[in-house]
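Example 5.3 — Copper-containing nitrite reductase
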Amino acid sequence: MYSEPKRTKIKSLMAMVSLMCLLVFATSCIDNNKKTVYENAADIPVNREMIAELTAPPNVPTPVGRRKAKKLIVNMEILEKEGEMTDGVSYVYWTFGGSVPGSFIRTRVGDEVEFHLKNHPDNKLPHNIDLHSVTGPGGGATSSFVAPGHEAQFSFKVLNPGLYVYHCATAPVGMHIANGMYGLILVEPEGGLPRVDKEYYVMQGDFYTKGENGDRGLQPFDMKKAVDEDADYVVFNGKVGAMTGDNAITANVGETVRLFVGNGGPNLVSSFHVIGEIFDEVRVEGGDLINKNVQTTLIPAGGAAIVEFTVDVPGTFILVDHSIFRAFNKGALGMLKVQGEENKTIYSGTQEEGIYQPEGGGIQELPNGDPEPVASAKTLQEKMEYGRATYMQTCFACHQAEGQGISNAFPPLAKSDYLNADVNRSIDIVLFGKTGEITVNGQTYNSVMTKQDLTDEEIANVLTFVYNSWGNSKQDVTPAMVRSRRNNK
Ligand SMILES: [Cu+2]
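Solution (predicted structure tokens):
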């Protein structure tokens, strides 16, 4: 009667004993390995010195691999310098190492970082650095405050693995961050992160300018807009187009891509997404937690994430902040270009319905209010310049930087027989939109271009730019021509 439960008891006892044996065996295995495992990263000894390799985005330094912990010397120079926010718009950036985001720093657990922060003599302001990977007051800020023409030095032991943000923390802190003073420091675990084929550095930031998005000239920082969190630009790697066209990051079919993604803020949280990809793995918030099969990952201001995915099919994959107006209207858009063999099983690439056009409503229906009176372009050169700016803001997301279009989705404007055949038809397309099948350079497209909310002069300039670029017919389009087409309908 009791035999059944008894047997079960004996069984479980045996199971327990064998489990214990296994545990003992496993521990002795580790012991036999004679590898000292430090329970406390602070105890990891360093031997020898090494100058840290620093890189500007989208590049990252060489992986740490199996190297031992070292005294790692970081030489970081702060430079205040004018740069381009987008075509025709410049901005005075404050930078760690000359780039926004600042130089990427790559360390491993146990490293002892000797940080040299140099403030260039031509700079106007004092700065400092707060690294989120530092255990200590202010993350280093209190020890690194440095006036122009001076250098500050401090050191710290790298204790926790992960991907960390660093930033300037000099008052007014928000303003220093808003001007581009942030970057990433990676702390690899002992033995390094698993090997991948491609690694890139991407960091989002929001910018606040006196003028509105696209207003030309040198734009000063706007404190009121920054306080109101009313960003004019939201960008990857410091400017509109830092990761598009020729600046796109690249990979080959079959490769694994790892993106170190940070968000400098100062204000906005990023809904980071790659159109047409699924993240196989995300190291959530840059820490140890690995989430799998993720579509969009949240990257807080002052936070980071490591995302990884294998690219299976060729094409252009668009990196966005999926708060989507930021992507298509404020600049938070980058590109990963993948080359290699198509795989029709994974993606047919031929079906005509269902083209994903998130930019459809975004750019066109933006309520602009009354159009601002803009300076009129007089010369062809001016028309080209203004037209190019409109192109890069309005048309480029679909027709691409060199007018090459995207196969099966957006027809090319470069050497377009369709464009060159009839100027009035082109004006009508921009004015009123276009649907239905068309053939451009022998390829058929059957899609939708919504009407573009632009003034007559803007349309004249952008079309003049298109006609005078990329091997087209050099047609000059005037505002009067656009006006007469507009009134025609
Ligand atoms: Cu600063």
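Remark. Residues 94, 127, 168, 170, 176, 181 surround copper (II) ion (CB under 6 Å).
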